[in-house]
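Continuing the series of single-chain predictions for the mutant panel. This is the parent chain; the variants come on the following pages.
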Amino acid sequence: MGIVHIVVLTVALLTLLTLPCVVAAILGHDPLALRDWWTGRALSRLDRHMVAVSVDLPAPSFEQIAYDLRRLGHQRYHGPNRQSVKWQSAVMSAYDLRLSLACQCLGLPEHLGPLEGMDRDLERMRLESQLQAAGLALR
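Parent structure:
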């Protein structure tokens, strides 16, 4: 049993000692690259050199948007974690995006983007009533 512990400890120490060498080999032989990697500057340098790539995704079908609206509407009130502010915010953002997509599909005017707080809630209610009047069942 003692030999196993010695072998495991030796392997762990060798791994810790050789890790900087492996990182230096991956980043190249530039001695400043390891320092940049360690301080996080390499990531910011990489961000500056990244090229934005636009991907044209196919627009979801109206049936998919309607399904997503019903699913997200249910999650707004009966979700698994209603106490999480981040979760609630993510659900509301997704719901608002689907509301905007549904309005675009039906040619209805919507102004969710610039609004915040109570004004955004009122616009959301107005859009829901317009979509229901157009025949979309949200509940």
